[in-house]
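Proteins fold reproducibly. Consider a sample protein:
=====
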Amino acid sequence: MEESKMLVKSDLESFDIHSSHSSPSADSTNKSFVSFKKEGCKSPLSSWGSRRESGKCFSLSGELDYLEEIIKLKDQVENSENQVDDLWGELKWKEEELHNLKEFSEIEIYKLKAQIEESEAKKHDHEISKLVKQLEIANEKLKKSEDENTILRKELENKSCENHELHGHLIEAKENMVESDLELVSGRKHIQILENLVIIYEQEVQKLESKMLDSQDNFSLEKDELHFAIASLLKKKIELTSTLANCVFRNKELENKLRQYEAEKLKQEELHATQQVVLQNENNYLWEELGKRTEDIEAVTKELYMVMIERDEANVKIDRLEAEICTLICEI
């Protein structure tokens, strides 16, 4: 922003300096007048106008490309946030399922302990040791599933941190876009000032041409006045050519800056591409980990179902033993 203001100010100062210090000689005045008539009083700023229009189109296309990159980055952040939300929902559902499974296992453990105490009183050590081992296996499986859920929770927290960093990159990109917009606005103002100067100069040239044509009719009577008008006209022409040279120089500087801006934009595009690849790899890894976790949970549920079946068989055996004990008591 400050650099564009300094460029406009330096352009105006250079125009004032050239307008105050240019003074042609008499011989060069006459020769320039003849060449000026042969050329038909054409304006030397037509080529600069075409370059200026192409520069405008080029800057607008670069601005649109930069906006498209910002929108793509924002869409990536939103997709990543949606994936994290889905993972959090699935984790909460698994935690609730694990909590219910844990409560159910504790109830079953309490019942089995009661049955074990009864069986210890009745001296059935072999079956009691089997039940204890089964309880220990079930507790170990529950601990493993809890550890897996804690690991998954840590991975989700890391993913949330990465999304926060992406938000920071998006905010920085928006700030850079605002700065580039300000620079473009200042450049347009500078171009508008130059266009106004060109219009003023062309109007002055047209006025001088009309005066020159009128003075040609009375050339023999107003020779001295005509020489004075030609001298002033050539002075204006030299000022305009010097101003045009400055404008061409400034235009080249702006083109160099545009090339630098394109190089920086390419670097940013490569950086965004690498970030996108990293995010895609991380998402694929998380999906694979979720698939593995679901398979592990299904295996745990199957093993728990087998434990419940074995518990039912143990209950049947205990009922049978109680019936035998009752018959023994009755016989005694």
Q: What stands out?
A: The chain is about 95% helix and 0% strand.
